[in-house]
Structure formats: C-alpha cells, structure tokens
C-alpha cells in the first residue's frame, strides 16, 4: 500500500465500485465528504469497502495517509440522486510560458546538477541518448559517480517500461513526488524521506570492468496514476510560489541520495511537464533532434522561445543531431545545423565567446542496431563500441570537470617569464625557414617515411607540400647536413652506417633568404673536399637560377626542358656531360650524389602572374622526366629530391596529377592538426624540458599532445572549469584554412606572437605559460603576416584578396552575399581551392587566419559558424 497524499485516497475510491447509496465523494486534505441517499445507506457496507481498499489504514472513522500519518475523517451528508455524478478521467496538458526574462542572478541549484533530455517530437533518440550518457558516466567513473535517472515522460514512459517492464512494484514514482510537492513544504526532510524510498529502486549499469549501482525514479507506480494526474507542475509552481521549485527539489533529492547528478527524460514538446526544466537556466539541456524537417523546425522554434523569454544560457546546452543518413552530404548537414543553431549562436556571439560549434552540437550518424531496442540492459549492450557511447563518455568527463575548479599546480613566475622569453626568441628565429637557432629537427611522419624507404639508397622523389609546410626548412637542414647519412643522423639522433657516402648538392634554391646561399656554398665546398679537388662550381646555384629564367623567355617543348635540366645538373662539374657518365664515374669512386631543388615557386612566380605556359613544362620535366631518367641509371648513384608546392605541381602536371600525387603521398608535407600540435610541443621542449616529460613527442597521439600542451596554453581559453572551448582545438581552427590545412610556419608564428607579453604576479592564470588573452591577441597578428606571406609567395592569389581588402568598409561583413563579393567565377574557384573562401547556403565566408588582415567583421552569430567550418 502506497498512500502519499489525499489524492491517492481519492484515486483509489474513484476506481472502486461504490455502494448504491453513494451519490458523490469529495476528498479534501483533511476529510472525505460522502454525499449519500440516507434511506438506503448501510454504514457497515461502507466500512467493509474501506477495509478492503485501505486495510489497516482505515480505523473505522478515518483513513490515514501512510507517508506522514495524516488522518482524513469520513463525513456523511444527506442528498439524493440529483447529486449523483462522477468526474471524468482526463490528463491535463497545458503549456506554460514566462512573460519576462528570467532573473539574471539565480542561486545555484540547492543539491546536485540536473540535466534534462528533451526533444520536440518523439522517436529521435532522446531516451537512447540519456541512456548512453548514463552508461558513459558508469564507464568513465565506475562506482565513483552515482546517477539518479528520472522518467518524467507521461505520454511515452520509455525508461519506466524498459527498466521496470510489466511489473508495478516501485516504492515511489515521479507522479508521487509531484503530489508530495503539491501538499507539503519543500525541505530537506521531505527530500530525505523520498530518497529513502528511491533507494529501494536501484538500477544496474554494466561496464566492461564492473557492475555499477545507480538510482531510478519511474514515472508511475501503477498505470492508474497516468490516467488521473492531479498535481501538475502548473499547480505546484502556483502553490509553492516558485517557478523553479521542481528542478530545485529534484536536485535536493539527488543530494539526499548522495548521487552526483540527476538525469531527467522529459516529455516531448513544450508542455507544463517539461517547461520548468527548459526555462530553468541552471538545468543543462540536451536537445535531441533528427534531420527531419518537422523535428528541426520544432526544435528551432523551441530554442528561439527559450532564448527570447529567459536567460536560458543556450550556449551551455547540447544539441544532438541524430539519425543522420550515411548518404547525406556535408553541405546539407551544415545547412541543417545553420538553421537549427541560429538562436544558440546569436547568444554565443553576443558573449564574444571562443566556443566552437562542436562544443555544443553533437552529430550522431544513423545506426541500424538502434532501430529496434529491448530493455535497458539490452540497450546498454548494444551501445558497446558505438560512436554514441564514445561521444557521451567524453561529455561525462566535461560535465563533472565544468562543475569544479581543476586548474593545475601554480608555476613559478620566474620560470614562466624566462620560458616565454626563450620561446619568443626561438619562434622569432624559426618563423621562417632561414632560422639558425634550431637545436635539432622535428621528425614528422613524412620525413620518417623518406628515411625509412631510403636508408641506404639515394632518393629519387618529389616532396609535395602546401606553402609554409616546411619544404625550405627541410631543404635547409639537408644543406646543413651535407650528406644523406648526416641528415639521417640529425633525425635519428644516432650513428648511421651507409655502404657508400652520399653527398648532397643544391641544384636550385629559394632567393628569398640570405641564410640559404652560404649553406649552399658550404655544401658544394664539402663535396669538393670529399673528391679532393674543385669538381663543382660553388656559384652553380645562382647560375642555374639565371639560366632557367633566361630559358623561360623562349618557348620550349617538354623534351627540351628535360634536356635543359640534365645539362644544368651535369654542368655543375666538368667531369661528365650526361647522367649516365656521372653514374659510372660515381660507381668508380664509390660515391653517390643527391641533388636537391627548392624555391621553384619563387623561380616561376612572375611567369605564373604573366600567365606564361613555359613554366609548366619546366616543372613537369623536372618532377617526372628527370627523376625517371635517374631511376633508369644502371648503378643508381644519382638521386634527386624536388621540393614543390602542391598547387603548382597540380597545375603543371594536369590530368595525371592524382597519379603523380599518389606515387609520393607518403612523403607529402601535410601538416595535420596532430602534426601541428606535435610541432608546438617540440618547440616548447627546446626551451623548457618540462614539455618533454613523460611523452614520446614523435610517437604521441593527438590526445597525449593536447594534454601536454595544457601546460603551455591551458586546457581551455579560460579557467579549466569554464564553458570556454579547449585551447588546442580553438588555436588549430583559428590558424587553419577551409581545406583543413595549416603550415608549420603558422604554428611557429603563433608561438612568437603569443609570447610577447609576460604575466605579472597578479595573473589569475598561474597554471600555464601562455595566457588566454595573449592567445586571442596573437591571431590578428598571425593574420597580418599570413597576408604578407601570400603577397610575397602567391601573387596571383593576393591580387584577388586585395580586391576584397579594398571593398567599402560597410560591405566588409561576413557572411558575404554573391552580389557583394564582386569576383569572377574563376577567381572564386581559385580562393576556394586554396581554402581561403567557402560557400555555405549561398553565403561566403573567410577563414579566421586571413579575415582580420583583410579587415572583415562578423554579422552577429557568424563567428561560431566560421570556426565550425574550420574545425580540425
């Protein structure tokens, strides 16, 4: 018997067959009034009925409420059949809304955090997502964290059905809690009493390592509760004179249970049973929607209502976009996200937050095993190994981290200042490839592949890379090493044995750095020293540069360009005139030669701007024909490494570029986000050994690198407990183009600008070296130098960007409409290919790395959108 309020007595009486003498029964908080026909009334019949219904709770004169021992006395009043009637059983589903913005300062929830899962319509994975979060908490924290799960979905109580099945044996239900709130003062004593009953309804969540016990509050104890709902949130709020009383009391119950968090599965739609949670800014919300138009439109409307009527902190919510079809294109998904997130991103942008879209929007792809689900334990089993569980496990960690201060140990201020000064000096020296202060060389994956494939052979390859990807940096280190074995030693930090000495000789080099020329001369002098005489012309690099420019003035075939390159190679010495002779001569001397070529973009820049076609034959012949000719040599003693920008090679080689690229894809200098972070750790470790502690920089995963970089620039762009985005992800996004590319130079440049200003003793961030404010300030400075770099190295692209820079100030706002863009289709395509422009929903955006230098501002709500397009 569970009698918590007078309403339970009323419901039990009304579902019972009454004696014929009864006309009407009115149940109040302190009495039961029965209207009877006195001429046929039999008091003993009444007593037998009450004993059969209420057993020992009926004492002959009153019925006792079991929960608090209150007695309701039975009173009779005379009447007749004209008084006879029954009330209809009908649930109440009334919407409630708040007229004004919620108070800006509301006290924290009195107990533990509350998270509510809501969807505009059913069948989109809301309950499944809540279950995944519960299991994610159990998987991540084991029995260290307890969860109270509440099913408040009166229309489709999925959790109640999945967990309790057909049994109606719960000690207390959510509807009971609402009734108790209606008729009792809300206090810790009431919360403790209810918690004692909930403890009887434990819930087991099994992980790979152990079974964890949690708590569950079903929506009902018995089905009749669903058919006669009396205590609605609307009535409770009015009675308690506190519109947030429901979420507050559930928080108190969670604390009484010694749970760590309360998860509430809300009813779909905006009703009186979901509104108190949706409009309470202290309750974190998970809005779940599929990609269907009805679900998207409804969720968008709901988000706008919350944003307009309350200080609902939508930016602290999570939006789960579920059931994404595998065939749905990325652009379509982004259009759905743009429509869905308009209200959220307006609020985020108004706070000038550094959040990324992935901080508040989670994509869940369609997964067929979730179509038909069984009970709770079966669902937990199906979740194993699924992406949904991975996402929710990551969220579980952020939920508990955001609720507490977890900032690291305080660093000595003197060490911080000295490290930043040294880091600034090193980054300033290394920001261009001519830097000379590097202590050693970072071995990226592509470099390691070259070394592995050519340990004791001379390479005959092309190394592709975007601008600033480190081509000249590698070229410089090869010249410094002077031999192939020396280069490998710089990489491996160990002795390298080779069957015969391989000497490095520069064929062509960049003219934009004064440090390269002395290295080239020293490299040639070393070769002459090894051979014992002046075989090679020390000025051959400059002569080759002039020869190519002169040859470019006339039209030549591909075969003629191939011959020109081989003539230049052989012309560096008077010993041989063709490659075959060189190969044979070197075989006699037990030597090898590795020619290296860099700076082709400088060499052919004017020809590209003037739209001459000859440069394409020059590039194609060197990268393909000359290398192929070397591969056909009998002894393989002559090699070549051509460092070339990817877009230049693609334009020169044409239709066969993909085949060419695939041939060398393992050697491509592609700075992925992971490699960029690896470079940041490596540079930091050059100036402070702290950054190299407990990590193998060359082999570390992205997660391990991000963890190590928390020491450098913090876990987040704010306190670790803040809602700001993670520093590493934001920095990578801000430095990348829309192709997801960033260069080694970008990372080094960022380190230079972010370490200019040193913190003082009053700094609130003494758990890291680089402060959040310095990170934000560094991006515009990086943008300025990026644009200068494009002007120097990509003149044809700069000419297009310059037109954007010279637009009227009032038009320089993102997103740009096509009529404001004022570029030709060919020019738009060029910028898009470079990752400097992207179109989304017929609107154009610029990446952060060039936006500020071009002088563009954001329309409200556009900033998070751009950063989401840049996420790496």
From TrEMBL:
Gene3D superfamilies: P-loop containing nucleotide triphosphate hydrolases. GO terms for cellular component: cytoplasmic side of plasma membrane; cytosol. GO terms for molecular function: ATP binding; ATP hydrolysis activity. InterPro entries: P-loop_NTPase, ParA/MinD_ATPase. Keywords: ATP-binding, Nucleotide-binding. One of its GO terms (biological process) is negative regulation of cell division. This is Uncharacterized protein. It comes from Schaedlerella arabinosiphila. The lineage of its organism: Bacteria, Bacillati, Bacillota, Clostridia, Lachnospirales.
């Amino acid at each position: 018997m569970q009698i918590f309020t007078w309403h339970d007595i009323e419901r039990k009486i009304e579902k019972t067959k009454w004696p014929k003498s009864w006309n009407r029964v009115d149940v109040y908080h302190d009495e039961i009034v029965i209207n009877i026909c006195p001429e046929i009334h039999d008091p003993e019949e009444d007593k037998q009925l009450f004993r059969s219904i209420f057993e020992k709770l009926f004492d002959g004169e009153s019925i006792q409420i079991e929960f608090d021992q209150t007695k309701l006395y039975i009173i009779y009043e005379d009447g007749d059949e004209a008084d006879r009637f029954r009330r209809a059983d009908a649930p109440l589903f009334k919407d409630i809304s708040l007229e004004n913005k919620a108070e800006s300062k509301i006290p924290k929830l009195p107990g533990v955090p509350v998270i509510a899962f809501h969807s505009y319509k059913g069948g989109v994975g809301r309950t499944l997502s809540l279950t995944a979060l519960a299991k994610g908490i159990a998987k991540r924290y084991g029995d260290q964290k307890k969860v109270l799960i509440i099913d408040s979905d009166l229309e489709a109580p999925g959790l109640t059905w999945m967990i309790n099945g057909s049994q109606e044996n719960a000690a207390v239900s959510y509807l009971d809690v609402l009734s108790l709130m209606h008729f009792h003062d809300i206090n810790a004593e009431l919360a403790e009493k209810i918690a004692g009953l909930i403890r009887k309804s434990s819930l087991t969540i099994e992980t790979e390592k152990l079974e964890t016990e949690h708590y569950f509050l079903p929506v009902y104890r018995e089905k009749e509760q669903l058919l006669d709902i009396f205590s609605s949130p609307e009535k409770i709020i009015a009675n308690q004179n506190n519109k947030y009383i429901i979420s507050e009391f559930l928080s108190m119950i969670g604390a009484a249970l010694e749970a760590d968090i309360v998860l509430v599965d809300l009813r779909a739609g905006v009703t009186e049973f979901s509104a108190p949670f949706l409009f309470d800014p202290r309750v974190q919300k998970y809005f779940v929607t599929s990609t269907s138009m009805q679900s998207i439109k409804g969720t968008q409307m709901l988000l706008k209502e919350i944003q307009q009527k309350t200080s609902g902190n939508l930016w602290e919510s999570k939006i789960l976009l579920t059931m994404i079809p595998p065939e749905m294109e990325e652009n379509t998904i982004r259009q759905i996200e743009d429509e869905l997130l308009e209200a959220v991103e307006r609020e985020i942008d108004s706070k000038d937050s550094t959040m990324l879209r992935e901080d508040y929007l989670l994509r869940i792809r369609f997964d067929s095993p979730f179509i038909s689900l069984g009970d709770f334990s079966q669902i937990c089993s199906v979740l194993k190994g699924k992406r949904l569980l991975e996402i929710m496990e990551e969220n579980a960690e952020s939920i508990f981290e955001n609720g507490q201060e977890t900032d690291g140990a305080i660093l000595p201020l003197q060490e911080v200042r000295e490290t930043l000064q040294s880091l600034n000096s090193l980054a300033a020296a290394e920001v261009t490839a001519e830097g000379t202060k590097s202590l050693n060389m970072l071995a990226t994956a592509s470099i390691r592949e070259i070394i592995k494939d050519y340990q004791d052979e001379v390479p005959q390859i092309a190394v592709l890379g975007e601008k600033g990807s480190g081509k000249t940096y590698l070229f410089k280190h090869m010249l410094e090493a002077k031999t192939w074995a020396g280069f490998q030693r710089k990489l491996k930090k160990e002795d390298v044995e080779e069957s015969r000495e391989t000497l490095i000789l520069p064929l062509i080099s960049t003219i934009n750095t004064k440090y390269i020329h002395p290295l080239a001369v020293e490299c040639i002098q070393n070769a002459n020293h090894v051979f014992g005489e002046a075989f090679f012309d020390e000025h051959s690099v400059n002569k080759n540069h002039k020869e190519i420019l002169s040859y470019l003035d006339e039209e030549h075939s591909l075969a003629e360009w191939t011959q020109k390159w081989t003539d230049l190679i052989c012309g560096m010495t008077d010993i041989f005139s063709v490659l075959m002779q060189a190969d044979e001569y070197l075989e006699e001397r037990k030597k090898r030669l590795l020619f290296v070529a860099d700076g082709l973009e400088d060499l052919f820049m004017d020809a590209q701007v003037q739209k001459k076609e000859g440069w394409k034959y020059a590039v194609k012949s060197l990268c393909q024909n000359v290398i192929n000719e070397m591969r056909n040599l009998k002894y393989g003693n002559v090699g070549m490494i051509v460092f070339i920008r990817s877009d230049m090679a693609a334009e020169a080689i044409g239709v066969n570029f993909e085949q060419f690229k695939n041939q060398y894809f393992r050697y491509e200098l592609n700075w992925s986000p992971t490699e960029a972070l690896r470079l940041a750790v490596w540079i930091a470790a050059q100036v402070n050994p702290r950054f190299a502690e407990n990590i193998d920089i060359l082999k570390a995963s992205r997660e391990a690198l991000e963890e190590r970089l928390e020491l450098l620039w913090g876990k987040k762009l704010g306190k670790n407990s803040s809602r700001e985005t993670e520093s590493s992800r934001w920095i990578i996004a801000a430095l990348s183009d829309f192709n997801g590319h960033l260069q080694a130079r970008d990372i080094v440049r960022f380190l230079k600008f972010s370490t200019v200003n040193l913190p003082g003793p009053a700094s609130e961030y003494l758990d890291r070296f680089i402060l959040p404010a310095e990170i934000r300030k560094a991006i515009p400075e990086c943008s300025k130098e990026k644009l200068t770099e494009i002007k120097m190295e990509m003149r044809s692209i700069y000419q297009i960007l310059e037109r954007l820079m010279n637009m009227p100030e009032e038009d320089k706002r993102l997103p740009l409409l096509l009529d404001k863009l004022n570029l030709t289709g060919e020019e738009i395509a060029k910028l898009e290919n470079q990752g400097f422009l992207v179109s989304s929903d017929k609107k154009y955006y610029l990446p952060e790395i060039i936006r500020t230098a071009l002088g563009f501002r954001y329309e409200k709500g556009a900033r998070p959108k751009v950063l989401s397009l840049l996420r790496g």
